[in-house]
């Protein structure tokens, strides 16, 4: 909503906004007609005086010689439903200040600074209302500064340029040691002394450039991804327009950052009227395991028999979807590109290669109660978007993985939203790969089931050291704060770290079998993969847990969380609770309080690292026991271990 504000000057030069519980304070003041803001949590300054300005084309800056008009304050206490998410019902409670800023002099341009204060964080954005003397803009820089107080530790990803799949190993620096002018991906987690945590990210990224952080002269500053083909212009817009929300999640309990629904609350409700077709679930993904098929009579390839093998597996085991990808680097659709990563000069995703009949596959899968989704390169899909989606709907395809996007400039951001919007019109879900972080847009487009943007288990096919349990925990405490993450879960061949080697076919895993099971609880994704091959699962310990676990939730609670050490998350679906604990490479014991359970007796299925899990990491124990509210379970975790519980009322 864009508001026109009357030009009545505000006598004061300071605006204060407090969270509903009063613990979080945003202060905006003017020094020499320039705005500066501060963030204070429980009396401690987390972000000291930080500037706000906008640089437009031809040396034109908005940020000096400003006057503040009378702010408009409001309070919201609302409840909304999420068709897919970590919670079904979300209560949105916040206070808002709409602060109109106007330039002195002839231009007299107006920009509204909107600030929202929640109990678990702050958000701010610019709105550009319709006005007579300003019709459009070309933005060179959005100078949103974060003058982080003291010398806290920062955990983040670092990149050299804007062309990226947003995958990497997290680095940990004190602010004073953080390299200057490197691109830092978001969310970035900041740990202050005394265990106060702040994560910086963005919400509602629409028709705008993706944002990074960079350190300049000892302070953090926003850095936007430029439009393709040049480096100067980041955003082109016609008024009215608005920026994404600049979000600071804040708490002295790190689990509260994971539980937070701020990002979806900062997005618009969905306008999709009929959501009855929307069915989150689990999926096969045979590319990860190396396209493994049994030693049988049919020839493996891009054909019906190869896909039937995986469809039958899905049908037997409560796996909702099968992925049609291709085989051996050959996509399922005609293309003159040399492989999956290059669509060449010709691709047509409305057709299949001669060896494949998509209608036959979709019809067979439907008979078996399995949905089909397909892999596509975005540059093969986008030029024929409507024709492709019409054909997919006609075939009976339910969704798709759109891959190799590798950009977050304004053009790509708009492309992604167009894909989501037009896919929804054809009752198709989307899974973005090679893509930037989520920004809560799954509230507006609940057909976005998941996205990548993580260095995940696909890298065990080629990364010499493999993905470590420590990296899994880094993901939980950083990338997970933004939302759903497709992590290529399900590898069932765990080895000791010193035995790990890269295997493109049948990849190995580091971390125990129970650690893998726990990843399905800890990591949020509405389309979790079972990426290994059927014979790797059936008859194996722990597979029964994966057959049962859902992928979208009614409630999420973080029970234990020690940054870089361990995490326990409980998620409820209906009357069932699933509890997952991840450990790093140091064996330990910890206690899980069951105070989240309802009254009465419950039955718990408990999957734990076996006593010999250090030597045999695929070994686990399974037992059932009665539990009730108020009890405490003691958990013994192996190096790289984990534990999961499935708890149902009796």
Structural account:
This protein has 650 residues and is mostly beta strands. It is built from twelve helices and 41 strands. The radius of gyration is 25 Å and the shape is globular.
How are the elements arranged and paired?
Layout: E1 14-18, E2 24-31, E3 34-41, E4 44-56, E5 60-62, E6 66-68, E7 72-81, E8 89-103, E9 110-118, E10 121-128, E11 136-148, E12 153-156, E13 158-159, E14 171-174, E15 183-184, E16 188-192, E17 196-203, E18 211-216, E19 219-224, E20 235-238, E21 241-242, E22 245-251, H1 254-259, H2 262-265, E23 281-284, H3 286-289, H4 304-316, E24 321-324, E25 326-327, E26 330-331, H5 358-367, E27 371-377, H6 378-381, H7 385-395, E28 399-403, H8 410-425, E29 429-432, E30 448-451, H9 469-477, E31 494-495, E32 509-510, H10 513-522, E33 527-530, H11 534-537, H12 543-548, E34 555-562, E35 566-573, E36 576-583, E37 588-593, E38 601-609, E39 620-628, E40 632-637, E41 642-649
Helix pairs in contact: 4-5
CATH fold-level name of the largest domain: Beta-galactosidase, Chain A, domain 5
In the CATH scheme, the class of the largest domain would be: Mainly Beta
How is the biggest beta sheet arranged? 11 strands, antiparallel
Average pLDDT, rounded to a whole number, is 96
Intertermini distance: 49 Å
Unreliable spans are 1-7
How many E-type strands? Answer: 41
Radius of gyration: 25 Å
Q: What shape does the CA trace take?
A: globular
What is the helix tally?
12
For the record, the count of structural domains works out to 3
CATH architecture of the largest domain: Distorted Sandwich
**Which percent range fits the helix content?**
10-25%
Structural class from helices and strands? mainly beta
Beta-strand residue percentage: 35-45%
Pfam family, one: GH97_N
Domain Glycosyl-hydrolase 97 N-terminal: 17-269
Cofactor: Ca(2+)
Domain Glycosyl-hydrolase 97 catalytic: 287-453
């Amino acid at each position: 909503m864009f508001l026109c504000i009357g030009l009545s000057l505000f006598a004061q030069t300071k605006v204060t906004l407090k969270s509903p519980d009063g613990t979080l304070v945003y202060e905006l003041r003017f020094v020499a007609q320039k705005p500066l803001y501060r963030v204070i949590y429980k009396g401690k300054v987390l972000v000291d005086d930080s500037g706000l300005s906008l640089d437009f084309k031809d040396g034109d800056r908005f940020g000096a010689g400003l006057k503040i008009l009378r702010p408009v304050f409001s309070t919201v206490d609302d409840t909304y439903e999420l068709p897919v998410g970590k919670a079904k019902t979300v209560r949105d409670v916040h206070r808002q200040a709409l602060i109109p800023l106007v330039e002195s002099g002839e231009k007299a341009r107006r920009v509204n600074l909107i600030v929202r204060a929640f109990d678990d964080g702050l958000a701010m954005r610019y709105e550009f209302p319709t006005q007579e003397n300003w019709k459009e803009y070309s933005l060179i820089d959005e100078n949103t500064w974060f003058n982080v107080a003291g010398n806290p530790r920062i955990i983040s990803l670092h990149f050299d340029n804007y062309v990226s799949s947003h995958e990497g190993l997290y680095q940990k620096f004190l602010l004073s040691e953080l390299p200057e002018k490197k691109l830092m991906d978001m969310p970035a987690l900041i740990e202050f002394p005394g265990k106060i945590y702040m994560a910086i990210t963005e919400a509602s990224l629409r028709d705008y450039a993706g944002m990074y952080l960079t350190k300049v002269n000892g302070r953090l500053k926003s850095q936007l991804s430029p439009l393709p083909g040049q480096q100067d212009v980041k955003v082109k817009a016609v008024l009215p327009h608005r920026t994404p929300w600049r979000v600071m999640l804040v708490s002295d309990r790190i689990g509260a950052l994971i539980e937070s629904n701020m990002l979806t609350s900062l997005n618009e409700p969905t306008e999709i009227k009929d959501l009855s077709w929307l069915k989150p679930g689990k999926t096969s993904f045979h590319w990860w395991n190396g396209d493994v098929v049994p030693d049988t009579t049919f020839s493996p390839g891009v054909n019906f028999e190869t896909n039937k093998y995986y469809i039958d597996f899905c049908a037997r085991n409560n796996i909702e979807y099968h992925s049609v990808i291709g085989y051996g680097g050959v996509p399922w659709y005609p293309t003159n590109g040399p492989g999956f990563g290059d669509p060449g000069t010709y691709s047509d995703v409305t057709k299949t290669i001669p060896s494949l009949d998509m209608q036959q596959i979709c019809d067979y899968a439907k008979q078996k109660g399995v949905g089909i989704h397909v892999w596509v390169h975005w540059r093969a899909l986008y030029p024929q978007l409507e024709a492709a989606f019409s054909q997919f709907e006609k075939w009976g395809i339910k969704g798709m993985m759109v891959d190799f996007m590798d950009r977050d400039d304004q053009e790509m951001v708009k492309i992604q939203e167009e894909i989501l919007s037009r896919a929804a019109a054809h009752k198709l879900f989307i899974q973005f790969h090679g893509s930037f972080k989520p920004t809560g847009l799954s509230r507006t487009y609940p057909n976005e089931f998941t996205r990548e943007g993580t260095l995940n288990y696909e890298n065990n096919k080629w990364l010499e050291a493999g993905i470590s349990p420590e990296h899994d925990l880094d993901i939980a405490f950083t990338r997970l704060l933004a939302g759903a993450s497709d992590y290529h879960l399900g590898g069932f061949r765990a080895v000791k770290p010193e035995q790990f080697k890269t295997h493109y076919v049948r990849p190995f895993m580091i971390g125990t079998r129970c650690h893998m099971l726990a990843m399905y609880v800890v990591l949020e994704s509405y389309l979790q993969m079972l990426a290994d091959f059927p014979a790797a699962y059936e008859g194996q310990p722990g597979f029964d847990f994966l057959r049962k676990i859902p992928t979208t939730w009614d409630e999420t609670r973080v029970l234990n969380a020690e940054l870089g050490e361990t995490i326990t998350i409980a998620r409820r679906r209906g009357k069932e609770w699933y509890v997952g604990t991840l450990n790093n490479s140091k064996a330990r014991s910890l206690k899980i309080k069951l105070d989240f359970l309802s009254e009465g007796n419950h039955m718990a299925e408990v999957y734990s690292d076996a006593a010999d899990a250090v030597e045999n990491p695929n070994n686990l124990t399974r037992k059932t026991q009665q539990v009730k509210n108020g009890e405490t379970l003691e958990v013994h975790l192996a190096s790289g271990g984990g534990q999961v519980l499935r708890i149902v009322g009796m």
